[in-house]
Design brief:
The complex is a heterodimer.
Chain A: H1 2-16, H2 31-41, H3 60-74, H4 79-90, H5 105-124, H6 126-130, H7 136-139, H8 143-156
Chain B: H1 2-30, H2 33-36, H3 39-62, H4 69-74, H5 81-86, H6 92-113, H7 119-143, H8 167-196, H9 201-232, H10 243-268, H11 272-295, H12 308-332, H13 347-379, H14 387-404, H15 418-423, H16 426-442, H17 449-472, H18 474-477, H19 479-488, H20 491-516, E1 518-524, E2 529-532, E3 535-546, E4 550-560, E5 566-576, E6 582-585, E7 587-591, E8 594-603, E9 609-617, H21 620-637
Antiparallel strand pairs in B: 1-9, 2-3, 3-4, 4-5, 5-6, 7-8, 8-9
Helix pairs in contact in B: 1-3, 1-7, 3-6, 6-7, 6-8, 7-8, 7-12, 8-9, 8-11, 9-10, 9-21, 10-11, 10-13, 11-12, 13-14, 16-17, 17-19, 17-20, 20-21
Classes of the chains: A mainly alpha, B alpha+beta.
């Protein structure tokens, strides 16, 4: 309960405060490592914020995670090792780019399956969608409509 | 007294909406002209009643009547007048009143302008529109009454969230709602057409301008929100793939598909069944957006409702309207007959591809937005779906569409010669390639994909111009005749040109800001400076500042370009009075090549300040591109061919132009 309250407080606190993200004292001296750190932290969720990466957030937790990422990178971890480490500590929820697993298969393939399915349906049913030809008598105007149209055309001309 | 009057007006509006729904529907079924004829006056009465309720609520806000709970919760007597007014829709209850007001305005528009509609169609459209009002008025009256009183009345209100106190954000919700709710017209027309069992060109001529209007308003609303995020949130982000943003982007995508497919119904009498489905989907996504934002199912900045009863109620509305419309569709769609056969390679075929890709990219947004919710409710497992997902799914789906945009309008109806069409685009392709090489030479250190992205944008802009040149037959007819022809082109042709060029300009902006933005974070003392975007930013000092309802620390900066020109900007850390909530105002200086964006941070050491500066190249192209899309919609709506019976000016060329 206390943790929940704390999380709620952090969410509320972060709402009004514009994100300041990375502070000068966090920046690594090695530009290549710093670049990797920025790239990684752009893909990690700040778990007490709403839909912000830890790179964009100024919540204390985000700062801790940014420092953690930098510590791991300085210690010589690869990007993948850093990601695995964070997932082992915080779960899949920390990843803004969910990994492809059985549970996310539908997520990753869904949009493309819908495109394929749509293309297939359109091709198979192209007649139905384009419309079967209909005789003039069926689509044509009724005598009253014809008369009204004629009068409109006469006015317009 | 005023609040009670508003409440009473809402109840009367609910009764009127019930009447507006049932009597005309029954009348149209029985073919009774007198019963059908009650629809327009009922719609007019309804809009008046809801306007009274809205006016009462606004009055309570303007006069700071804190005995009304809603005003107490969301207003403060020190607020400037404009934010007292925008406070009316800056909260759940008030925004729902605005929602039904806009709904009723659209309904009354059909009543006023629908003189040339067949009586039964008009009656049914207004009745369906009324039924949406019934549901949402009931929702307001039962779960979200804005007129609840407090006794004793508090002396002062709790204030509006300071980050919402901003001119762009004051206008953002009304525009967005007008867009969302504007799609209800397309929905009502679709449902009425299904009941009638008949869709014809006249139907499409009605649906298209209303869809255009809704799409324009959505475009403007989304752009304002994005612009606000850019300058207010403090680091220049303009799109976050946040669920609430996605909720407005999905109807935008489907509305874009709908206004393209309605062209086919109008011009070629084909794709009717599909167009009806799109009209239903577009408004369904609007309802879904309302549900996502209003139910609090995604706890985020935009959600004000925490009461689950509301969520369940809106979910019920969602099921009844979407489910009902889709069931009606399944039952009645086979009755609707279409004409107009076409070959796969034709203007119709191109518009079908447009629709397919737009709906698939909408599906990517839909799945990405709802998947975490669905997974959590089924398995209890929490995952995050963020920007990387959308870039990897939405991106590849929208890319082929962008590539094909210039080609589509050059294809002829029914059956087209694709080779002839591509030949006309060689100039556009050549310009795109040249610009790509130039961009690569200029920014050779950036990502290698970026010049290709810029080329795509240029291809879209140049393609739109080629299209216009082809219509005016510029090369053969000579400049004078061509100019006369261009001037005489129908609004729809101009609209398409502007909107497609706008997409291109927007794409260039997105690519530039993504690939080439710069960021510097450092500690500055007064007199210190830093380099960003080829310019020097100097911290000239701090001054305290007091606004109407906040106090601030203002940092002053001067930006010196390489040419020697200087510009002064300031950035503030503000603390708002009632809540002690801090916000930041950023300093932005716009140049032709992009924005220099300065943000003052916390104190660091003796007299030092953390300062972050960003360089956002070509960011103005995002706003210009959106504006061009909006203007394109406007030009299209102004096409005089939509005003059936209006006297036609005899302009050379106008009559022979192929209509869009």
């Amino acid at each position: 309960m206390l943790r929940r309250l704390l999380a709620l407080f952090l969410i509320l606190a972060s709402l009004g405060v514009p994100a300041y993200a990375v502070q000068p004292d966090e920046v690594l001296s090695d530009p290549a490592l710093e670049h990797r750190a920025r790239e990684l932290s752009g893909q990690m969720r700040c778990m007490v914020c709403q839909n912000q990466s830890i790179d964009d957030s100024d919540a204390p937790l985000a700062k801790d995670l940014r420092i953690l990422i930098r510590e791991r990178l300085v210690a010589g971890d690869s990007n993948q090792q850093v990601v695995d480490y964070l997932v082992s500590r915080y779960g899949e929820f920390v990843l803004l780019k969910p990994r492809l697993t059985a549970k996310t298969l539908a997520l990753w393939s869904g949009p493309f399956l819908i495109l394929l399915l749509g293309a297939l349906i359109l091709w198979r049913k192209r007649r139905a969608f384009a419309g079967a030809p209909v005789s003039e008598a069926e689509t044509g105007l009724s005598p009253e409509e014809r008369k009204k149209l004629d009068s409109i055309l006469k006015d317009a001309g | 007294m005023i609040a009670e009057l508003g409440q009473f007006a809402l109840i009367l509006a609910f009764a009127t909406a019930l009447y507006q729904t049932t009597v005309p529907l029954y009348g149209a079924w029985r073919g009774d002209q007198r019963l059908m004829a009650v629809a327009p006056p009922a719609a007019m009465l309804q809009v008046c009643l809801i306007a009274v309720a809205f006016g009462c609520l606004t009055w309570a806000y303007v006069t700071s009547d804190f005995s009304v709970e809603n005003v107490y919760m969301n207003s403060h007597s020190d607020k400037p007048l404009i934010y007292k007014i925008s406070g009316v829709w800056g909260n759940h209850e008030g925004s729902m009143v605005l929602w039904v007001l806009i709904l009723a305005i659209f309904g009354s528009a059909v009543a006023i302008f629908g003189g040339n509609l067949p009586p039964s169609l008009k009656a049914r459209v207004i009745a369906v529109q009324g039924s949406i009002s019934v549901a949402f008025l009931l929702f307001i009256l039962l779960t979200s009454n804005p007129f609840n009183r407090l006794d004793p009345a508090p002396i002062e209100g709790r204030g509006l969230n300071p980050i919402l106190q901003d001119p762009a954000l004051a206008m953002h919700p009304p525009l967005l709602y007008a867009g969302y709710v504007g799609l209800s017209i397309a929905f009502s027309f679709a449902v009425a057409a299904l009941i009638e069992g008949k869709v014809d060109a006249a139907w499409a001529r009605w649906v298209r301008p209303w869809t255009l209007a809704a799409w324009m308003l959505l475009t403007a609303g989304i752009m304002l929100g994005s612009w606000w995020a850019y300058y207010e949130l403090g680091w220049g982000g303009w799109w976050f793939w946040d669920p609430v943003e996605n909720a407005s982007f999905m109807p935008w995508l489907v509305a874009a598909a709908l206004l393209h497919s309605a062209i086919v119904v109008e011009k070629r009498n084909a794709l009717k069944v599909w167009t009806i489905l799109l009209a239903i989907l577009a408004f369904s996504l609007s309802l879904l957006g309302t549900f996502l934002v209003r139910s609090g199912v995604l706890t985020s900045v935009h959600s004000f409702a925490v009461d689950p009863a509301r969520g369940v109620f809106i979910l019920g509305i969602l099921c009844v309207f979407i489910g009902g419309a889709l069931a009606l569709y399944a039952w009645r769609a086979p009755v609707i007959k279409s004409g107009g056969l076409f070959a796969p390679i034709s203007r119709e075929g191109a518009l079908v591809v447009n629709n397919l890709l737009l709906t698939a990219s909408c599906a990517a947004v839909f799945i990405g937005t709802l998947y975490p919710l669905a997974l959590e409710s089924v398995t209890g497992e929490k995952i995050s779906v963020g920007p990387p997902y959308f870039n990897l799914t939405f991106g590849p789906l929208i890319l082929p569409l962008l590539l094909l945009v210039p080609l589509g309008p050059l294809l002829s109806w029914k059956r087209a010669d694709i080779w002839a069409a591509t030949q006309r685009l060689w100039a556009a392709a050549a310009i795109a390639v040249i610009v790509a090489i130039a961009a690569a030479a200029w920014q050779w250190r950036g990502p290698w994909l970026a010049p290709l992205g810029v080329a795509l944008g240029v291809w879209l802009v140049a393609g739109a111009v080629v299209e216009l040149a082809a219509k005016s037959n510029f090369r053969k007819a000579g400049a004078a005749v061509a100019w006369a022809r261009v001037k005489g082109l129908p609004g729809a042709a101009w609209g398409m040109m502007l909107a497609h060029a706008g997409v291109g300009v927007f794409v260039i902006g997105v690519v530039a800001i993504t690939a080439w933005k710069q960021e510097v974070v450092t500690v500055l003392k007064p007199g210190d400076s830093m380099q960003i975007g080829g310019r020097t930013v100097t911290f000239t000092g701090e001054t305290p500042f007091t606004g109407p309802n906040y106090s601030a620390e203002r940092g002053n900066f001067s930006i010196t370009s390489s040419s020697g020109a200087t510009a002064d900007v300031w950035s503030e850390k503000r603390v708002f009075k009632p809540s002690n909530q801090p916000t930041t105002e950023v300093g932005i200086q716009t140049y032709l090549d992009g924005d220099v964006y300065v943000v003052i941070g916390d104190r660091a050491g003796d007299a030092g300040r953390t300062v972050r500066a960003y360089y956002h190249p070509l960011v103005w192209m995002l706003w210009l591109g959106s504006l061009l899309m909006f203007l394109g919609g406007f030009a299209s709506i102004m096409d005089r061919r939509y005003r059936v019976g209006a006297p036609k000016k005899s302009t050379a060329g106008a009559a022979v132009q192929p209509a869009e």
